[in-house]
Amino acid sequence: MIKYAVHILFLILVGICWTPAEAQFVNLQIRVEPELSAEVQQELDFGTQITNSGRSQIGLGDVNMGIFSIRAYYTQNVYLNLTFPDALIHSNPAIDQEIPMELSISYNNSGLNRPSESTPLPSEGGLVAIHENTTNLTSTSDIWKEMYIYVYGYIDIGNIPNGEYTGDIVLTVDYD
After folding, report:
1. Which of 74, 138, 146, 163 is the most exposed place for a label (fewest CB within 10 A)?
2. Does residue 147 have a pLDDT over 80?
3. 107, 119 in Cβ contact below 8 A?
4. In angstroms, rounded to a whole number, what is the distance separating the alpha carbons of residues 125 and 74?
5. CATH 2.60.40 describes domain 36-175
6. In terms of Cα–Cα distance, which of 94, 108, 22 is closest to 61?
7. Residue 68 CA from chain centroid, whole number
8. If you compute the radius of gyration of the chain from its CA atoms, what whole number of angstroms results?
9. What's the angle, vertex CA 126, arms to CA 125 and CA 130, rounded to 5?
10. Residues 6+ apart with CB under 8 A from 154
11. Alpha carbons within 13 A on the beta-carbon side of 45
12. Helix, strand or coil for residue 162?
């Protein structure tokens, strides 16, 4: 009988202590900006060329130069490097004539798209601050800055067969 009384007392205590639990759920959404974004503003374009036309040059500030923009946190540093082949090759692998090419890059980290105020980058690349002036920020919207990269140079058109000549030009942007 005592044995049954202990079981009944246990069941009564469990029943009293057993209360439904209440829970709260929080739907939290956080928007995280990427540390860096790069965009092609304008492609480098030598246009249609004529055989034996010689050197075709696109200078810094010319309408057809390539322009990239990089948006990043204002204290960010980026390592820029431009790699490209020595020559453009014909789309037909049976044609072995090439178009010699030489390219350069400059950057403007003032936040303005002004090629005339840009600084040339060495051919081996270099480390650059995203923004030249990291003081005097007036608001939190000022912490994201934009820099501009300009690609320009020349190709030399000799006595080559007509057709399409291509090459891969790669701008590498590494950030810390």
Report:
1. 138
2. yes
3. yes
4. 20
5. yes
6. 108
7. 8
8. 31
9. 125
10. 55, 56, 57, 58, 101, 102
11. 10
12. coil
| 161's tokens | 């067969």
Average pLDDT, the chain: 83
The pLDDT value recorded for residue 30 is 66
For the chain, report the end-to-end CA distance as a whole number of angstroms: 77
pTM value > 0.90: no
Per the CB < 8 A criterion, the answer to whether 157 and 54 are in contact is: yes
| All residues at 6 or more sequence positions from 172 whose CB lies less than 8 Å from its CB, including other chains | 79, 80, 81, 82, 83, 125
Alpha carbon distances (Å) from 43 to 39, 65, 163: 11, 7, 20
Q: Is residue 161's pLDDT more than 80?
A: yes
Using CA atoms, how far apart are residues 90 and 167, in angstroms rounded to an integer?
Answer: 9
Q: Which two tokens stand for residue 111?
A: 């936040």
Does residue 119 carry a pLDDT above 90? yes
Q: E-strand spans in 12-97?
A: 36-42, 54-58, 66-73, 77-83, 87-90
